[in-house]
Amino acid sequence: MDIQTFTKRVQQKENLPYDDMIQAAKILFDEETPKEDIKEFLLALREKGETAEEVAALSIVMKSNAVRIPVPEGPYIDNCGTGGDGLQTFNISTTSAFVLASSGVKVAKHGNRKISSSSGSADVLQALGIHTDFTVEESVQLLKQEGIVFLYAPAVHPKLKRIGEVRRDIGKPTIFNLVGPLTNPVDLDVQLVGINRPDFVEEYAKVLRILGRKRAIVVSGSQGMDEASLDHRNRAVLLENGDIRPLTIDIEQLGLQPATVSHLRGGTPDENAEILKALLKGKRTPYYDAVVLNAALGFYAYGTADSLKDGVAIAREAIESGRAYEKLEAVVEFSQNIIKEQTV
């Protein structure tokens, strides 16, 4: 069977059952499948609207093709969002990852270069002096040493190159935005995912349930921001022991200052790196509150905090004590040492 057969069914607004989507996904990753056919299939899915079963099936096939990262056993969290919101916000989840790791949370963060933003996580990391082409051994060493690792999607998903070219050609979010956070090569117990589609929050939690996450939070912020935003337009759910229930995020009750999405806009990777460093040094701006909020969600999902309010207190303390900035410096030093070794 070829991908065109599945495309025709999707164009007729037929949802693909899990097993059929597994088949279709395998064809997508086949090097012989023409790029134009891949594009047509992805656009058809986008037009129809993806289901939990379709997203879960594609993520399982994509993860099966990933490079294996042999990490020690432990509860790991990823706080990577889907991207694709087009809002040009600064790198909130990347910044939050340093806050989480500085307080004992084991973070395996999946990320990419910019596709639909000014600065993807890999772009800002490079601007900070953290390179993105760690070997598997170096990634494992960094995770063991600092409790955090950044896994650059093209490096851990070698079969994604052709599909990445198709995605850039499409220039709009596709099912691969939804699948990206689900394909971390590290087995995750916990996940915090910001998605760019408020209408898909509960469906996305169902995907995480299919994939066996023990606990997870899915959030979509104002204007479809793929993070929690600092206003009252967040839509969020908590997945816990198979149950999915709404999660209320009350900004003022959490002691945070309301702000619009425009206050969270970033710029180039260098500009975002400066925002990130100033924030982790304690500079109070809407950027600071956005990171505190999103880190709080991570602490609550992971179980470090018993409530979002507790999570906010832990996040603030991690920044104010200097631990979060020290974690950034430690990761930069690790990366720079590897670069020095390579040039000797």
UniProtKB/TrEMBL annotation:
GO terms for cellular component: cytosol. Residues 6-65 form the Glycosyl transferase family 3 N-terminal domain. 5-phospho-alpha-D-ribose 1-diphosphate binds at residues 81, 84-85, 89, 91-94, 109-117, 121. It catalyses: N-(5-phospho-beta-D-ribosyl)anthranilate + diphosphate = 5-phospho-alpha-D-ribose 1-diphosphate + anthranilate. Mg(2+) 2 binds at D226, E227. Residues 75-325 form the Glycosyl transferase family domain. Pathway: Amino-acid biosynthesis; L-tryptophan biosynthesis; L-tryptophan from chorismate: step 2/5. Binds 2 magnesium ions per monomer. Catalyzes the transfer of the phosphoribosyl group of 5-phosphorylribose-1-pyrophosphate (PRPP) to anthranilate to yield N-(5'-phosphoribosyl)-anthranilate (PRA). Homodimer. NCBIfam families: trpD. This is Anthranilate phosphoribosyltransferase.
